[in-house]
Every structure is written in structure tokens, then in C-alpha cells.
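Inverse folding, one chain.
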């Protein structure tokens, strides 16, 4: 495994602590690694008008992109459940805009992780 992935995994677990999830109780943390080796984190943010909710992955991407980043290596995603969860379809499309070869690290717990290439999770992305 890439040497930075352990730090990325720890960062996503830490980012989950900021999750604002009063409606679902499902807390998500994401940590996004740039090609230049910086980490941007995100958490889910739930709004009482539920469709306004932001997923952790897109929050991490928005933070990074708004700081001028465009090239990414990997994203680690953790939740407060002891199970692997796959990113939602909207996040797959959002992430694929920037790096279809992104490594997606899904964390059940520190000892049990799965790594996918984004293009295998979203084999056909929408393209304009
Ligand atoms: N959620 C994420 O943060 N990422 C995903 O990929 C799927 C879902 C959040 C949104 C909402 O706050 C909660 O999980 C339940 O859907």
C-alpha cells in the first residue's frame, strides 16, 4: 500500500468527528490526497430540508478545488458503522470529473479496508 494511505485513512476517521448528521446518525469522513501530497478532508452535512445535504466526499473535493487543486491520487472514506459503504452515485460522478483513476479507499475499520479504482465503481460516466 502507498505510504501516504495510512495517514489518509487516519485523516478520514478524524474528519468523521466533524460530521453533522442529526437526521440519519450516519457519520461520514473523507480525506482526499492531491498529487502534490496535500490532504483535504470533508464530512457529511445534513440539512433539515434533506435534499440539501452534502456528502463527505463532495465537501472534501469542494475544499480542495476551491484552493486551486485539480489533480488527485486517492480518497479515503470512513463511517461510524463497522461495514464497507460505497460512495453514492452522485459522488462517483463528481469525483470522476477530476480523476477517473482515483483510488477509492473504503474503510470498515483500521484493519479491514478495500481499495478500488474509481473507474471500476463507475465504468460509464456521463460526459458532455
Ligand atoms: N453520505 C455521504 O456522506 N457520502 C456518501 O457517499 C453517501 C451518503 C451521507 C449523506 C447523509 O448525510 C448520510 O450519509 C445518509 O445518507
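Residues assigned per position:
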Amino acid at each position: 500500500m502507498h505510504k501516504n494511505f495510512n495517514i489518509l485513512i487516519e485523516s478520514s476517521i478524524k474528519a468523521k468527528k466533524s460530521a453533522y448528521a442529526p437526521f440519519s446518525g450516519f457519520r461520514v469522513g473523507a480525506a482526499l490526497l492531491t498529487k502534490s501530497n496535500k490532504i483535504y478532508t470533508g464530512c457529511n452535512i445534513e440539512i433539515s430540508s434533506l435534499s440539501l445535504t452534502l456528502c463527505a466526499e463532495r465537501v472534501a473535493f469542494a475544499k480542495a478545488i476551491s484552493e486551486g487543486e485539480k489533480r488527485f491520487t486517492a480518497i479515503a472514506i470512513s463511517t461510524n458503522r463497522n461495514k464497507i459503504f460505497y460512495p453514492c452515485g452522485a459522488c462517483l460522478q463528481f469525483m470522476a470529473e477530476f480523476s477517473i483513476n482515483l483510488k477509492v479507499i473504503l474503510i470498515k475499520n483500521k484493519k479491514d479496508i478495500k481499495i478500488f479504482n474509481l473507474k471500476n465503481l463507475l465504468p460509464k460516466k456521463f460526459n458532455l
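The chain has four helices and five strands. The two ends are 34 Å apart (CA to CA).
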